[in-house]
Design goal:
5-stranded mixed beta sheet; two-stranded antiparallel ribbon; globular
Length: 218
């Protein structure tokens, strides 16, 4: 599998792929497998690790036992993961991919993409690791109707990061909506919730949705 090498510069240290022309549809999707986890079984702040674990699970039909996830946490902690606040998306992605390739005999590669491709690659069937940067309770309005639209004024100054998986939900084989897959399986109502396409651009512009994410191929 190959991908167009078109790039645009974000800053002097970061380049994002911007063209998904040559991405092929993956064999497995979250819509088919629905593999999810509860991050607090491992660590309260392990959303970065579990976002990647959830994404790889659904992209490659893998399952990570609780002991395996605890082992990933141990490796991550040795590499800089903080049990008091978590880790960065970039470091978590590399750590989980490296662990998976070594321990599950995989050959997974990560591709960093711009938010402008989120909807397109999700509709192809890819899961995306990305996150929000917001104040506590930022996703409270999802409980109203299962749609995250920030109707309760969560654009605040007291911010923290939370990573999750973005995917698409289909009906009769047609992609219908972009959904967030969180890491609280069976422990939180509406673990999957829709994000309105119409607000994605504004979320990025306001520093809420991460401007990039990771997808994975092998």
């Amino acid at each position: 599998m190959s991908m167009n090498n078109t790039l645009f510069k974000v800053d002097e240290h970061q380049f994002l792929l911007t063209d998904s022309t040559y991405l092929t549809k993956p064999k497995y999707t979250h819509d088919k497998l629905k593999i999810e986890y509860w991050q607090s079984e491992v660590n309260k702040y392990s959303c970065s690790l579990h976002a990647v674990i959830t994404t790889l699970s659904n992209q490659f039909n893998l399952y990570y036992t609780l002991e395996e996830r605890k082992d990933i946490l141990k490796v991550a902690t040795d590499q800089g993961f903080s049990k008091k606040w978590g880790w960065t998306m970039v470091d978590a992605s590399k750590c989980v991919v490296d662990w998976t390739n070594k321990n599950k005999a995989m050959h997974i590669k990560s591709i960093r993409i711009s938010w402008k491709l989120f909807r397109k690659v999700a509709y192809l069937g890819y899961c995306i690791v990305t996150g929000f940067h917001l104040k506590e309770g930022f996703n409270a309005d999802k409980f109203d109707d299962g749609v995250l639209n920030f109707s309760k004024g969560q654009y605040g100054a007291d911010k923290y990061g939370h990573l999750l998986t973005l995917a698409s939900k289909t009906k009769f084989g047609i992609a219908k909506q972009l959904i967030a897959v969180d890491n609280y399986k069976d422990k939180s109502r509406m673990n999957n919730y829709e994000i309105k396409h119409s607000i994605v651009k504004d979320l990025v512009a306001n520093g809420i949705l991460f401007p990039s994410g990771f997808i994975y191929t092998n």
